[in-house]
């Protein structure tokens, strides 16, 4: 529960520049219309709620700025402002005045995390020093003779120096940056305590005193860095989803010039009205309308369905859609910043920015730590100096107060439980991407499911095989075996004997998006979409989809399919419904298909044929009424909804972006993994509350002893470490068997569920 990590790793150019030219601001900004523009800046030094308040407050004071919102996970601030073509606000200078470097944000995702590498190195140095100094201290505590004790103190000083200088630099930088700009944070008392303990230990070593406190300062650094590293790992996971979306967009596009010449230009230079050539195997770079060519598309980014879509002149295409078959010529209707894919990215960034609210309460509470501890330590030193006149004893007591009140136990109360819970879920084949989701999962009162790939496996099952003549089933199976379409696979599996086809085909050809056409002499057989295969009106069989077999456009057999429901789906839905949770389906699939699955699972509320933005709007509408939403989905089109939900879960079969946007990913096929996640979250919530209670009780009990001079800096470090060990030990109880019984879900609609 730290305020700032104190780690400033400037990006290229950020260290040497404190201003961004107006031209750069205008070129990098996005026109929102009506004179309003939007600029994104990266903030490498932003780490906590105090940083959010300082940055947003400074930017809102600039004339023309209407909105400034910090995304702490991405360390980015989005600014909406008004200005003319000649003048742009100097955002970088305003941020530099309060101690924050900034530079124009890039959509490219960093391949390495230099902050994490620095933290791990510092943690290793502190751990090595603390471990060896503690070993040497055993001899001192055991009553070593003065010469041996002095030698061990000198060795301890040499071991402690690298940790104090190298590992402690993160805290010193953060503390100095805060003090230099008239602020304070938790790293100020930590830095003071570490440096004073080391300085006093050096003084006592030079004067051959009985005790030194090198072990206190190094152990303190190690424990703090351990908690900080865990915190950084948790925050960093949220940044990967936006990067995964950005990689779906190509770097550039082939532009068809007026003389029919083709030039490859950067994506940022694409403007509405340009003609673009999209070859087979390429993704559509920006939104556009087909003006030439016909092809098949993988439009799962829009609908979430794996079924291919036909594109012909006049078809509107969204950025990110994959062209599968033939070249297409498009007329661009939007720039890269205004495309469908860019809008999905912005929706996810906005959702991630909202999530930082869950940490602000803890960070604000922690911000009270610095002034309170400073005041208590200073008053203790002054009181003892006035009462005894012994400066050495007074400084020693002040150090003990600073060390013993270190919020290590509070800092570990949440992340340690989360880490153990993550490991327990991993043992069950479940990956947790965001530790804070455990807390949010205990607040849900509404569960939203995607259909294809979530409630179903994306596979089809032939349900009326017994009603079809064996000869016609064998005929259809012979045709179906040339295709990997889910319906074709289901027909082929329904005729496992693989007999010789009753008709010898001269040719078989798959027509993408329609079906399979076979010719036998003058007869034409078609297996596929009813509207393509036959001229007859088809009978509704009440299933999710139908396929017909026709001969010369006359229907000779009708095949009815249902999607295969994912294992555990029925039991999970019943469990959630019995808990009083609202259960609903949000899907981009056809209404008939969604209705069929809803009937099978006894889900009354569902919405079909939704675009990604409409799913997000549905979640926001529920949130506006106070509902806490759990979204379970897998498709690329579900990514913004997964990011916007209060908490989200995806199967491992989900797209890369879907997995990146979710808080939990389960590796098996059974949806009962969701029940395991909820059970683990409930257990984690109990342990976190216990850890907070123990950490607070530790400080209430220990501080009076430190003020009273009963506790030395070494004893303070040991007590601090013991409190951390107790918290860690309690966190390890996550693996204990959970007693089954009622628990309450929902912030607005309590319900009882047995899991």
Quick rundown:
The protein has 755 residues and is of the alpha+beta class.
Would you give an account of this structure?
- It is a single chain.
- With 755 residues, this protein is an alpha+beta fold.
- Helix content is 47%, strand content 19%.
- The chain is built from 27 helices and 29 strands.
- It has a seven-stranded mixed beta sheet, with helices on both faces. Strands 7-6-8-14-9-12 form a six-stranded antiparallel beta sheet, with no helix packed on it.
- β26 (647-651), α25 (656-661) and β27 (664-666) form a beta-alpha-beta unit.
- The longest helix has 35 residues, at 673-707.
- The radius of gyration is 32 Å and the shape is elongated.
- 46% of the residues are buried.
- Belongs to the cation transport ATPase (P-type) (TC 3.A.3) family. Type IB subfamily.
- Residues 37-103 form the HMA domain.
- This is Cation-translocating P-type ATPase.
- Keywords: ATP-binding, Cell membrane, Ion transport, Magnesium, Membrane, Metal-binding, Nucleotide-binding, Phosphoprotein, Plasmid, Translocase, Transmembrane, Transmembrane helix, Transport.
- It is a multi-pass membrane protein.
């Amino acid at each position: 529960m730290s305020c700032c990590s104190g780690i400033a790793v400037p990006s290229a150019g950020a260290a040497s520049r404190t201003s961004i030219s107006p031209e750069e601001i205008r070129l990098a900004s996005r026109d929102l219309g009506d004179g309003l523009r939007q600029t994104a800046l990266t903030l490498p030094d932003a780490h906590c709620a105090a940083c959010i308040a300082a940055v947003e407050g400074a930017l809102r004071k600039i004339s023309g700025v209407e909105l400034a919102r910090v995304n702490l996970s991405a360390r980015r601030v989005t600014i909406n402002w008004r200005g003319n073509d000649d003048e742009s606000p100097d955002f970088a200078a305003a941020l530099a005045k309060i101690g924050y470097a900034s530079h124009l944000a890039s959509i490219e995702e960093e391949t390495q995390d230099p902050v994490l590498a620095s933290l791990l190195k510092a943690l290793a140095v502190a751990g090595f020093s603390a471990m060896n100094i503690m070993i040497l201290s055993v001899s001192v505590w055991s009553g070593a003779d003065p010469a041996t004790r002095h030698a061990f103190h000198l060795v301890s000083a040499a071991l402690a120096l690298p940790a104090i200088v190298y590992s402690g630099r993160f805290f010193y930088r953060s503390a100095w940056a805060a003090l230099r700009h008239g602020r304070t944070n938790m790293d100020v008392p930590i830095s003071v305590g570490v440096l004073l303990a080391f300085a006093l230990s050096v003084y006592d070593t030079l004067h051959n005193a009985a005790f030194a406190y090198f072990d206190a300062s190094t152990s303190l650094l190690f424990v703090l860095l351990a908690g900080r590293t865990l915190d950084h790992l948790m925050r960093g996971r949220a940044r990967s989803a936006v990067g995964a979306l950005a990689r779906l967009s190509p770097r550039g596009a082939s532009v068809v010039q007026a003389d029919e010449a083709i030039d490859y230009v950067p994506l940022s230079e694409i403007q509405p009205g340009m003609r673009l050539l999209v070859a087979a195997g390429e993704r559509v770079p920006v939104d556009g309308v087909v003006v030439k060519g016909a092809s098949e598309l993988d439009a799962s980014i829009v609908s979430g369905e794996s079924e291919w879509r036909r594109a012909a002149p006049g078809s509107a295409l969204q950025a990110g859609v994959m062209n599968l078959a033939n070249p297409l010529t498009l007329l661009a209707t939007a720039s890269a910043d205004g495309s469908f894919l860019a809008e999905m990215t912005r929706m996810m960034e906005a959702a991630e920015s909202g999530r930082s609210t869950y940490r602000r309460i803890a960070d604000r509470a922690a911000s009270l730590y610095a002034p309170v501890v400073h005041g208590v330590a200073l008053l203790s030193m002054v009181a003892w100096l006035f009462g005894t006149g012994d400066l050495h004893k007074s400084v020693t007591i002040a150090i003990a107060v600073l060390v013993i009140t270190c919020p290590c136990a509070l800092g570990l109360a949440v992340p340690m439980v989360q880490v153990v819970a993550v490991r327990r879920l991993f043992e069950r084949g479940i990956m947790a991407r965001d530790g804070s989701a455990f807390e949010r999962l205990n607040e849900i009162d509404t569960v939203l499911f995607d259909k294809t790939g979530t409630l179903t496996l994306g596979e089809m099952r032939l349900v009326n095989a017994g009603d079809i003549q064996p000869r016609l089933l064998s005929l259809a199976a012979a045709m179906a075996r040339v295709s990997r379409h889910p319906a074709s696979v289901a027909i082929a599996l329904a005729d496992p004997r693989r007999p010789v086809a009753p008709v010898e085909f001269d040719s078989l050809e798959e027509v993408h998006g329609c079906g399979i056409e076979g010719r036998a002499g003058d007869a034409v057989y078609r297996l596929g979409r009813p509207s393509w295969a036959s001229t007859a009106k088809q009978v509704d069989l009440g299933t999710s989809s139908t396929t017909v077999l026709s001969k010369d456009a006359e229907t000779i057999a009708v095949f009815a399919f249902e999607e295969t429901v994912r294992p555990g789906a029925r039991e999970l839905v019943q469990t959630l419904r019995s808990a009083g949770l609202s259960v609903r389906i949000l899907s981009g699939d056809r209404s008939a298909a969604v209705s069929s699955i809803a009937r099978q699972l006894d889900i009354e509320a569902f919405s079909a044929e939704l675009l990604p933005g409409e799913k997000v709007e549905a979640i926001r509408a529920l949130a506006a009424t106070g509902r806490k939403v759990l979204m379970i989905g897998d498709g690329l089109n579900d990514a913004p909804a997964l990011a916007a939900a209060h908490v989200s879960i995806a199967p491992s079969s989900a797209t890369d972006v879907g997995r990146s946007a979710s808080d939990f990913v389960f590796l098996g096929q059974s949806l009962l993994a969701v029940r395991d996640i909820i059970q683990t979250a409930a257990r984690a919530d109990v342990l976190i509350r216990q850890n907070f209670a123990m950490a607070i009780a530790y400080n209430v009990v220990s501080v009076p002893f430190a003020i009273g001079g009963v506790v030395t800096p070494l004893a303070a470090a040991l007590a601090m470490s013991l409190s951390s060990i107790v918290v860690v030990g309690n966190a390890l109880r996550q693996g204990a068997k959970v007693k089954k019984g009622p628990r309450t879900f929902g912030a607005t609609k309590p319900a009882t569920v047995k899991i």
